[in-house]
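This protein record is not my work; I was only asked to verify it. Would you go through it and say whether the fold makes sense for this chain? Here is the record exactly as it was handed to me.
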Amino acid sequence: MKVRYDADADIIHIAIREEEVKDMDELGEDIFVEYNEKGEIIGIEIWQARKNIIPEILKFIKSAKCVD
């Protein structure tokens, strides 16, 4: 698995397998799942990562600091 971040486009791409994308579904606003020819999930893209991901990570870090 590889995780890449494109700062210019603000997109996180999680490649589960390095295969050709045959289809893609939008799961929700700014979240896309990529499929291979067998219909298996091979990747996930998260657009507007600064808005969608970073606040959630910060919440997790803050809550983890409170745990002894």
